[in-house]
Amino acid sequence: MTDTMVTQSLGGQMQIAKSSSFSVEDTFWGYQIKSGRSPALGVVLAQILSYLFGASFMIAAVSILAMPVLFFDGNIGVIRIMASVLFGAVGFYLLWFASRGSQAEVHIDTSVGEIREVITNRAGRPTTIGAYGFDAISSVGIEPQSESAVAALVLEYRDSGQRVSVAEGIEAQLVPLRDRLAQDLMVETRSAT
């Protein structure tokens, strides 16, 4: 889908909403739903800071090992190696987090009856952050976002108030996807109120 501008009248006021660029890609095991929404600012800042601190820890780990032995006596060598390994591990973890993607996708695996929340890193490798069986979902619904013409397609878990936002867009764009999900999951649908 392409980005378009849609004008919608809500309560006598004209509002302009940018259409979401969510997409649905069919695969041999089911389909992938890419929400198209931009990543949260907090995630982007956390990844930038993780990259900076991770690179600093890696440089510190190498520097500790590369320091001339002149400044240390014999007993300090083990501590130096341990500190270098610790700094390297922290740096590696921070760099891993920084390279992790920030765009969440929802994979509907109809072959095994599972819904997966996945983040794809910059190299294209997926990391599953949550997996749920079809029986864990009680309903599929479209909920309006606060004071805009954009709505969100959400999956609601059984016996809890938890929801997973699948995609955002104009309600008319989300209805076919909602109906497809409801048919695949065999659950009830809810409309925007």
Largest sheet: 5 strands, antiparallel
Secondary-structure-based class equals alpha+beta
The strand order across the widest sheet is 3-4-5-6-7
C-alpha Rg (nearest Å): 23 Å
Q: Total helix count?
A: 3
Shape: elongated
Our estimate of the beta-strand percent is: 35-45%
| Run of helices and strands | EEEEHHEEEEEEHE
Proportion in helices: 25-40%
Kindly describe this structure:
The longest helix has 26 residues, at 41-66. It is elongated and about 70 Å long. Helix 1 (41-66) packs antiparallel against helix 2 (76-99). The chain has helices at residues 41-66, 76-99, 171-185; strands spanning 5-10, 13-18, 23-26, 30-34, 104-109, 114-120, 126-133, 137-144, 150-157, 163-170, 188-190. It is 34% helix and 36% strand. The chain has 193 residues and is of the alpha+beta class.
In short, what is this structure?
With 193 residues, the protein is an alpha+beta fold. The chain has three helices and eleven strands. The protein is elongated, with a radius of gyration of 23 Å.
Keywords:
193 residues, alpha+beta, 5-stranded antiparallel β-sheet, 4-stranded mixed β-sheet, 3 helices, 34% helix
Topology:
Elements lengths: L4 E6 L2 E6 L4 E4 L3 E5 L6 H26 L9 H24 L4 E6 L4 E7 L5 E8 L3 E8 L5 E8 L5 E8 H15 L2 E3 L3
Parallel strand pairs: 8-11
Antiparallel strand pairs: 1-2, 3-4, 4-5, 5-6, 6-7, 8-9, 9-10
Helix pairs in contact: 1-2
